[in-house]
Amino acid sequence: MRILLIEDDRNAANYLVKGLTESGHVVDHAADGEDGLHLALTGEYDILVVDRMLPKRDGLSIIRMLRADNDKTPVLVLSALGEVDDRVEGLRAGGDDYLVKPYAFVELLARLDTLVRRGGDNDSLTRLSVADLELDLLKHKVTRAGCVIRLQPRELRLLEFFMRHAGQIVTRTMLLAQVWDFQFDPKTSVIDTQVSRLRAKIDKGFDRPLLHTIRSVGYRLDESP
């Protein structure tokens, strides 16, 4: 696929261009928002990878201008801003998916492939479901079997991560890096405490549990016993 990368961090850009090129893709790179917008408006790309914080013009304003121009090219937003409100703002600006830094390159590849296959179908990425549990990221709304479940922002982010990895084993290391933005283990019980609170809210009172503990490994969200 032909990809436009708009990223001002030289090391991050070099890493992505190298990885994407070695994966068989053609990559154009812009180091600031103005050049990125110009390339996006004048070139033909299968997908855009846009950093949110850019010199000259920020990433979200680029996306808004493209959408105002009726450009429907799928956009993956990259950002170190990872709170729920930040991601919702990125999606409402017209982004089709939002990946928080730091991220695994294989996950970025998988998300690019998914976006291109779906043709930028935003709804399938902002409304997640596992069995009768549903999460609407744009509305900050969680329901199970039609019942509204109220979650705190960190719980919402934790649930989103579990739902995006439904059926997979999620380790403590993955949660520390992707939900808490820790690159080290603080040796606290914060994860166990938060998972326990989340489980109580999404499983208690329903006919079967969805959030399972895999002893000595991590957790898994699915409808299997």
Tags for this model:
225 residues; alpha/beta; Rossmann fold; Arc Repressor Mutant, subunit A; 2 domains; five-stranded parallel beta sheet; 12 strands
What does the model show?
The protein has 225 residues and is of the alpha/beta class. It has two domains: 2-121, Response regulator (Rossmann fold, 3-Layer(aba) Sandwich), CATH 3.40.50; 125-221, Orthogonal Bundle (Arc Repressor Mutant, subunit A), CATH 1.10.10.10. Helix content is 41%, strand content 22%. It is built from nine helices and twelve strands. The chain has helices spanning 10-22, 33-42, 59-68, 84-92, 105-118, 123-126, 153-164, 172-178, 190-203; strands spanning 2-6, 26-30, 47-51, 75-79, 97-100, 127-130, 133-136, 141-144, 147-149, 169-171, 211-214, 218-221. It has a five-stranded parallel sheet, sandwiched between helices. The protein has a four-stranded antiparallel sheet with strand order 6-7-8-9. β3 (47-51), α3 and β4 (75-79) form a beta-alpha-beta unit. α2 runs parallel beside α3 and α7 (153-164) crosses α9 (190-203). The radius of gyration is 18 Å and the shape is globular. The model has no long low-confidence stretch (mean pLDDT 89).
